[in-house]
Structures are given as C-alpha cells and as structure tokens.
Write a structure and sequence with these properties.
The protein is an alpha+beta fold. 29% of the residues lie in helices and 41% in strands. The chain is built from two helices and two strands, in the order ββαα. It has helices at 63-83, 88-94, and strands at 16-35, 41-59. Strands 1-2 form a two-stranded antiparallel ribbon. A hairpin with a 5-residue loop joins strand 1 and strand 2 (41-59).
C-alpha cells in the first residue's frame, strides 16, 4: 500500500518588511475654465496645496543586498582606518 504524498504549497513571503502611510503636502495646479461676458473661454490656474497619502515601504533584504552591504562596510572601514581611526583590535593592543 503506497501513500500519496501531498505537495505543500510554499508560503508566500512578502517583499516588504514593513510599510506605512504618511500624509504629504504637495502643490497641485488646478485649472478652472469659464466664459466671460464676451463669450471667450478663460482658464484660470491656481496652485493649491493638497494632502496626499504616500506609502513608505522597507524592503526585505536579499542575499545580493547583504553582499553589497558587506563590501560597502569594508570600504568605509578601510577609509576610516587610513584616516586615523582606531579599531577595537588596535585599541586592545595599545592598552
């Protein structure tokens, strides 16, 4: 008697670690068209500040992002050491 194995569906991982909304003020041009006494079309544009919701998202790091961050950290650390900063290991040797 053989048992049939059920394949489990992989759980969906979101691309974002965290997301939230921020209310942001933006300047928007609003145009209004009307006719004057002579029958000519007149357009009036005004700049109005409106509150627009903005979505802010923090992306889940990938393996490539980790590698790039390690490289960036190494470069900045070596620049600091060349500039004269002391690391923990160098401080331990001096004391």
């Amino acid at each position: 008697m053989s048992k049939k194995r059920r394949k489990m569906k992989p759980k969906f991982k979101s691309r974002w670690l965290y997301s939230f909304d921020v209310k942001r003020e933006t300047d928007v041009e609003v145009s209004d068209t009307s006719e004057n006494e002579k029958g000519e079309k007149v357009t009036v544009t005004k700049i109005v500040t409106e509150v627009v919701p903005q979505v802010i998202r923090i992306k889940r790091p990938t393996r490539r992002m980790y590698d790039d961050a390690e490289l960036f950290y190494g470069v900045k650390l070596s620049e600091g050491i060349r500039a004269g900063l002391l690391t923990k290991a160098l401080l331990a040797k001096k004391i």
